[in-house]
Amino acid sequence: MNGWDRVRPSRSRLGGSRATSMSSFGSERHSSSQTIHLGRVQPQAPGHRTIYCNDREANLPVKFKGNSISTTKYNIFTFLPKGLFEQFRRVANLYFLMISILSATPISPVHPITNVVPLSLVLFVSLVKEAFEDWKRLLNDRVINSSPIDVLQEQKWESIPWKKLQVGDIVRVKQDGFFPADLLFLASTNPDGICYTETANLDGETNLKIRKALERTWDYLIPDKASEFKGEIQCEQPNNSLYTFTGNLIVKKQTLPLSPNQILLRGCSLRNTEYIVGAVIFTGHETKVMMNAMNVPSKRSTLERKLDKLILALFGGLFFMCLIGAIGSGVFINRKYYYLGLSESVEDQFNPSNRFVVAILTMFTLITLYSTIIPISLYVSIEMIKFIQSTQFINKDLHMYHTETNTPALARTSNLNEELGQVEYIFSDKTGTLTRNLMEFFKCSIGGEVYGTGITEIERGAAQRSGRKFEEVQKSANAVHEKGFNFDDARLMRGAWRNECNPDTCKEFFRCLAICHTVLPEGDESPEKITYQAASPDEAALVTAAKNFGFFFYRRTPTTIKVRESHVEKMGKIQDVSYEILSVLEFNSTRKRQSVICRHPDGRLVLYCKGADSVIFERLADDNSQVKILTREHLEQFGSSGLRTLCLAYRDLSNDLYERWNEKFIQAKSSLRDREKKLDEVAELIEKELILIGCTAIEDKLQDGVPACIETLSRAGIKIWVLTGDKMETAINIAYACSLINNDMKQFVISSETDAIREMESRGDPVETARFIRETVKQELRKCLEEAQQHLHTVSKQKLALIIDGKCLMYALDPALRGNLLNLSLNCSAVVCCRVSPLQKAQVTSLVKKGAKKITLSIGDGANDVSMIQAAHVGIGISGLEGMQAVMASDFAIAQFRFLTDLLLVHGRWSYLRICKVVTYFFYKNLTFTLTQFWFTFQTGFSGQRFYDDWFQSLYNVIFTALPVIIVGLFDKDVSASLSKKYPELYKEGIRNTFFKWRVVGVWAFFSLYQSLIFYYFVTISSRGGQNSSGKTFGLWDISTMAFTCVVVTVNLRLLMACNSITRWHHISVAGSILAWFVFIFLYSGVMTPYDRQENIFFVIYVLMSTFYFYLTLLLVPVVALLGDFLYQGLQRWLWPYDYQIIQEMHRDDPDDSSRTELLEIGNQLTPDEERSYAISQLPKEKSKHTGFAFDSPGYESFFASQQGVFAPQKAWDVARRASMRSQPRTEKTY
């Protein structure tokens, strides 16, 4: 069902978010350029909705919405008005509309077609693009709306289209089918009323979720029984919160509470279940997935906003030129020029009796005449260039292709290509972004005793920094290493834990691992073949650890967990134990813990709890303080080794205590208002007086190439901040391991984990504690800022680093303190923020973006990074193991952090250089063309007489100078990709915006002025004595055609002078543009039709080309016009070279195919992944020697790979390309 791809269209994103680790946030991220809103649910209608199941007539008075959906922007009636409105929101289009209207008035010196044709062409192309995109959306909508679904009608299943479904209908969904609406889950073919769903269309996660029907509805599975179901549903109004639901089901006067576990959301699919039966509760645009479809936050690049200022400057120049002309016409107009026939009856524009009216009307006349100074085709050209850059260069770059996951880079928007070349601050998540998010159970602490040997990457890096030598620990011969488990300690393996001093504690530890989770087992019920579907890699690692310790979790039902326990009663004995699950208190970001209440086979009631150390230690019983002290020491030890920690605890419950608590729990579950809050409050009543068992330590290794990437980006002038929810010790050690922080840096640490703050918190006064922490943070910020300023003024220029935790950050972001925080942060080369929430990540990003006016980039892989990604100028999503929601909210998606090097230093820098060149060249060529018309105005008494023919003016931007600038925007390149990465300092030119400053624009404007003077006065003065073959002197249209020919030839040749690399495409486009002009003028001046203004140009080019003057002028004018540019470029390169020009000179003698030879030189430094990508890139393909990989053909990889023994995934285009290849004759070599 490909139609479901439309649920997340290019213009929409899912706003609900998926939590990392064991959590799920029920919140939507709204992002704009102004504020970041987190966790806000759309307003609901008052009260609740009542739905009568299996009774369409009873639901009819309510008029629920239908199930048909539409994701299109337009319909047949709104397309033109709405589409045109969208186009005229652009200032340039609105300006040209005004010019087109003015050109249709009598005061216009040019024919309306001069301005109408280019505007119509631009609007036509834009509207066709909009129509094509909307048509694709319409086709996808039709596919979805026409999908069949089985509905219960007259005691049998009838197949109807989705769009005819109504609220209250009873439906049947088969295996692998999609849910057509939001359903109440009634019954399933699986035992105990459970089903498995895949939520990939909601949050990108492919791991299965378990849903359980109410036991009261399990029987409604076959049509006969289902037709008897006449329940009444009272539930919340439609809203966009994906992970919450409150409602009650009333069946035969019995009220049953409903939770998200009974809700099947539209867009999800059914897995591992033959079929389910459900009742429709929300349809169409009221379903949660459709209410989450929101417009992509509109992001405009910084360069595009500066382009608006340049356009305004051109408006100013246009107004100034028109003002000069208007004043001149008011002064010049006089009846003494009798030959002008300025009698009393002359039209107002030329009536000397009212000079003010003459000036005003001349002003409007000149506005239409000089309208070409604003380039209407600029926006279309830039959009085309950016689109091709994204789809052909970024998406198909083999250097950013991840072989293991078969994931290429993906540009989800083309608006921000050049922004990638100006990034100064990177905000990065840690888990899954800098690290692999492949969790392995590494060590643990049980009853105050540490178990597990081995050295982490972080410890190894720390040892290297301090100069210490670590003796590598030899793994034991029978050590077990599988996915999620990298633990080696014979004291716990194969039942050896029975010989420890605390075997009962060990047993509780393993049972907690095996029971307290939400993991789903799949496959054969054997330890070797079973696979675990978990909400996070941490969960899977803990259950895998329990399996290896002899507590094998192999089956789950809604009410039981089955564990195969080994060596419990005596060595070698294996028994299957069934634990009855009575209640599950789920993990969320507020609670930071998860609890399960279960009944052992012997009747014992136990609450098992696991969670963050900060929340578990608060809820421990007062006894056994020695274990607490030791475990806290072990937690710090694990944290300093870069390991992720969780604490495990349990509590024995009496039946009476549980029954009393369960009544309150059921009451909270049945509540329609504030259900989540009430459930948390009830959970607090039983999650106390816990007994600490121990803690786990899980290793999350760094991704390949992260340290080298960060070092390269730092050399490029980019400052990197790490924003993570981990503990400070873990975050600091990860920062050390990836070369973000080193011992040479001066480190400022602002932490809430101080003795003074702990003492204040222990007094239990939250108001006084908050005031104390705020004052402490204020003093620390002021102290650190003073030290930082002193260090910056010292000779050593020592680099600075700031480490701050979430609690202190909350106060530091206060409006009164954020100024100091910003100043301190901007002086630091690296910043690490620990224990931060998703909202704080977005706030920190916005602080630098808006407060410092710096270009920011956020990169993350989880749903908790969405707000940060949307808050930055550029958002990068990593397609990792935490679902695809970060990718769906991002502007660009990559598979590994190290690919940032290519994305920023190569594609970003090239895009910035190219777009700058395109914009400044457009400015130059339009200003040059308009100024020649301006100089002519001085010789026409400021009357507004046109110098060029209307069609010359119309086609100048559209045909005669259009293609070459697009070619430059696509293929110009100052240095190769490998040199861009070898010399990352080149990137600083983009951060400083070197190539789009007013000084650069001023230089182009100066030479535009110089060249326009050459074009006009050289041609007009030299042609005064000129004669054609019949002896006639040249007239206005002869001279203007000559001048226009010189303009077209010169501006096209000037573009070649601005290029750093010239390919055959440059030659073809420039020669083609000049040739297009000659073809056009030959045809245009050779044909004349009545009722047009073409008689002016009739036969002009033939007359001109019959004279020696034409060829001499065509040779001399471009040479003289470009002489100034040639001298300036030579002097600038010699005396004040740009950084890239120095690199060009250093490598001017390198072979043309330098990028690949350099790759060979650094081959020994490549990771296995990079070596494979490089091997693929070496395969034969079409190539231009001038272009590096920008021209590489995407085809042939898999074919030639098989010939050379290199693995490369099969691509769809390989088949098509090989099928279309021309057979080449083989020539046999003789040796």
UniProtKB/TrEMBL annotation:
<feature type="binding site">
    <location>
        <position position="724"/>
    </location>
    <ligand>
        <name>ATP</name>
    </ligand>
</feature>
<dbReference type="InterPro" id="IPR032630">
    <property type="entry name" value="P_typ_ATPase_c"/>
</dbReference>
<keyword id="KW-0813">Transport</keyword>
<dbReference type="GO" id="GO:0000287">
    <property type="term" value="F:magnesium ion binding"/>
</dbReference>
<feature type="transmembrane region" description="Helical">
    <location>
        <begin position="996"/>
        <end position="1019"/>
    </location>
</feature>
<feature type="binding site">
    <location>
        <position position="610"/>
    </location>
    <ligand>
        <name>ATP</name>
    </ligand>
</feature>
<dbReference type="GO" id="GO:0016887">
    <property type="term" value="F:ATP hydrolysis activity"/>
</dbReference>
<dbReference type="GO" id="GO:0000139">
    <property type="term" value="C:Golgi membrane"/>
</dbReference>
<feature type="transmembrane region" description="Helical">
    <location>
        <begin position="1039"/>
        <end position="1056"/>
    </location>
</feature>
<dbReference type="InterPro" id="IPR023299">
    <property type="entry name" value="ATPase_P-typ_cyto_dom_N"/>
</dbReference>
<feature type="binding site">
    <location>
        <position position="430"/>
    </location>
    <ligand>
        <name>ATP</name>
    </ligand>
</feature>
<feature type="binding site">
    <location>
        <position position="431"/>
    </location>
    <ligand>
        <name>Mg(2+)</name>
    </ligand>
</feature>
<dbReference type="GO" id="GO:0005802">
    <property type="term" value="C:trans-Golgi network"/>
</dbReference>
<feature type="binding site">
    <location>
        <position position="429"/>
    </location>
    <ligand>
        <name>ATP</name>
    </ligand>
</feature>
<dbReference type="InterPro" id="IPR023298">
    <property type="entry name" value="ATPase_P-typ_TM_dom_sf"/>
</dbReference>
<feature type="binding site">
    <location>
        <position position="725"/>
    </location>
    <ligand>
        <name>ATP</name>
    </ligand>
</feature>
<keyword id="KW-0472">Membrane</keyword>
<feature type="binding site">
    <location>
        <position position="726"/>
    </location>
    <ligand>
        <name>ATP</name>
    </ligand>
</feature>
<feature type="active site" description="4-aspartylphosphate intermediate">
    <location>
        <position position="429"/>
    </location>
</feature>
<feature type="binding site">
    <location>
        <position position="429"/>
    </location>
    <ligand>
        <name>Mg(2+)</name>
    </ligand>
</feature>
<dbReference type="GO" id="GO:0005524">
    <property type="term" value="F:ATP binding"/>
</dbReference>
<keyword id="KW-1133">Transmembrane helix</keyword>
<keyword id="KW-1278">Translocase</keyword>
<feature type="binding site">
    <location>
        <position position="864"/>
    </location>
    <ligand>
        <name>ATP</name>
    </ligand>
</feature>
<keyword id="KW-0812">Transmembrane</keyword>
<keyword id="KW-0479">Metal-binding</keyword>
<dbReference type="GO" id="GO:0045332">
    <property type="term" value="P:phospholipid translocation"/>
</dbReference>
<keyword id="KW-0067">ATP-binding</keyword>
<feature type="binding site">
    <location>
        <position position="644"/>
    </location>
    <ligand>
        <name>ATP</name>
    </ligand>
</feature>
<keyword id="KW-0460">Magnesium</keyword>
<dbReference type="GO" id="GO:0005886">
    <property type="term" value="C:plasma membrane"/>
</dbReference>
<dbReference type="GO" id="GO:0140326">
    <property type="term" value="F:ATPase-coupled intramembrane lipid transporter activity"/>
</dbReference>
<feature type="binding site">
    <location>
        <position position="865"/>
    </location>
    <ligand>
        <name>ATP</name>
    </ligand>
</feature>
<dbReference type="InterPro" id="IPR023214">
    <property type="entry name" value="HAD_sf"/>
</dbReference>
<feature type="transmembrane region" description="Helical">
    <location>
        <begin position="1099"/>
        <end position="1123"/>
    </location>
</feature>
<feature type="binding site">
    <location>
        <position position="861"/>
    </location>
    <ligand>
        <name>Mg(2+)</name>
    </ligand>
</feature>
<protein>
    <recommendedName>
        <fullName>Phospholipid-transporting ATPase</fullName>
        <ecNumber>7.6.2.1</ecNumber>
    </recommendedName>
</protein>
<feature type="binding site">
    <location>
        <position position="841"/>
    </location>
    <ligand>
        <name>ATP</name>
    </ligand>
</feature>
<feature type="transmembrane region" description="Helical">
    <location>
        <begin position="310"/>
        <end position="333"/>
    </location>
</feature>
<feature type="transmembrane region" description="Helical">
    <location>
        <begin position="918"/>
        <end position="936"/>
    </location>
</feature>
<dbReference type="GO" id="GO:0005783">
    <property type="term" value="C:endoplasmic reticulum"/>
</dbReference>
<keyword id="KW-0547">Nucleotide-binding</keyword>
